């Protein structure tokens, strides 16, 4: 068994605990990835190792997705992993596609105005919803996993299934828009950006750009100890 540790904090502390358990620490094709930090560390770990089961260990107080794991009970968690006493919990991901570029998020995909002092104008079509003109800061297309994060902070309720779009400080006001298959967003005026989660890399959008948003075929996986 191989485990990698993704952490902006005390990597050496967790590494010693893993090695002491007899498990190899390796960034090459790990079987599990320990995300030692907060919710942001989980997003980074999933981006670097998509689909590899994550073990979230809280270091930050902002870690709503860390189950009941802690650095203190990590030795027990590792022993149960070796005995295969765990289940895999799968989580939906969302993707945004512009031309031949794709960006994938565990929490959300965002389309927003590049210049914060200028409103973005865009159209939005998803199923029976067809907004010819939306004016504001953009939108957030959230997964259930991310619906307790930025999506909720915008005033929308968390949800359990599918992908839902919330408009970010926009007119017209809108209830959550559920994506049945795909959503199409066209930039009408001003420049925008397409981004995912806390990824520093983003895709630039200009008037005429059309973005497709849909549920990704990829799944995030988390190891849940029995």
What does this structure look like?
- This protein is mainly beta and 226 residues long.
- The chain has two domains: 2-84, Rossmann fold (3-Layer(aba) Sandwich); 93-217, Tumour Suppressor Smad4, CATH 2.60.200.
- Helices cover 15% and strands 44% of the residues.
- It is built from four helices and 16 strands.
- It has helices spanning 11-20, 39-48, 74-82, 150-153; strands at 2-6, 24-25, 32-37, 54-58, 86-98, 101-105, 108-113, 120-126, 129-136, 138-142, 164-167, 177-178, 182-189, 192-196, 203-205, 210-225.
- The protein has a six-stranded antiparallel beta sheet.
- The two termini are 19 Å apart.
List the helices and strands and how they pair.
Elements: E1 2-6, H1 11-20, E2 24-25, E3 32-37, H2 39-48, E4 54-58, H3 74-82, E5 86-98, E6 101-105, E7 108-113, E8 120-126, E9 129-136, E10 138-142, H4 150-153, E11 164-167, E12 177-178, E13 182-189, E14 192-196, E15 203-205, E16 210-225
Parallel strand pairs: 1-2, 1-3, 3-4
Antiparallel strand pairs: 5-6, 5-16, 7-10, 7-14, 8-9, 8-13, 10-11, 11-12, 13-16, 14-15
Notable traits:
226 residues; mainly beta; Rossmann fold; Tumour Suppressor Smad4; 2 domains; six-stranded antiparallel sheet; 4 helices; 16 strands; 44% strand; elongated
Summary, kept brief:
The chain is built from 4 helices and 16 strands.
CATH architecture of the largest domain: Sandwich
For this structure, what is the CATH homologous superfamily of the largest domain? Probable inorganic polyphosphate/atp-NAD kinase, domain 2
**Biggest sheet, in brief?**
6 strands, antiparallel
Quickly count the helices.
4
SSE string, helices as H and strands as E = EHEEHEHEEEEEEHEEEEEE
């Amino acid at each position: 068994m191989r485990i990698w540790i993704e952490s902006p904090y005390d990597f050496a502390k967790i590494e010693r605990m893993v090695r002491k358990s007899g498990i190899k620490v390796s960034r090459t094709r790990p079987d599990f990835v320990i995300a030692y930090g907060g919710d942001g560390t989980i997003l980074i770990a999933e981006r670097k190792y998509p689909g590899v089961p994550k073990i979230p260990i809280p270091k930050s107080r902002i870690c709503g997705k860390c189950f009941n794991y802690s650095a203190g009970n990590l030795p027990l968690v590792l022993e149960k992993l070796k005995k295969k006493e765990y289940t895999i919990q799968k989580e939906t991901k969302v993707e945004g596609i512009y031309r031949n570029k794709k960006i994938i998020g565990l929490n959300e995909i965002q389309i927003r105005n590049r210049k914060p002092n200028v409103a973005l104008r865009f159209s939005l079509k998803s199923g029976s919803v067809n907004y010819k003109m939306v004016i504001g800061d953009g939108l957030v297309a959230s997964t259930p996993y991310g619906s307790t994060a930025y999506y909720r902070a915008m005033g929308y309720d968390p949800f359990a299934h599918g992908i839902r779009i919330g408009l970010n400080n926009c007119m017209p006001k809108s209830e959550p828009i559920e994506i049945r298959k795909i959503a199409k967003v066209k930039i009408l005026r001003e420049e925008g950006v397409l981004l995912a989660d806390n990824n520093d890399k983003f895709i630039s959008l200009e008037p005429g750009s059309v973005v497709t948003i849909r549920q990704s075929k990829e799944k995030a996986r988390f190891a849940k100890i029995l």
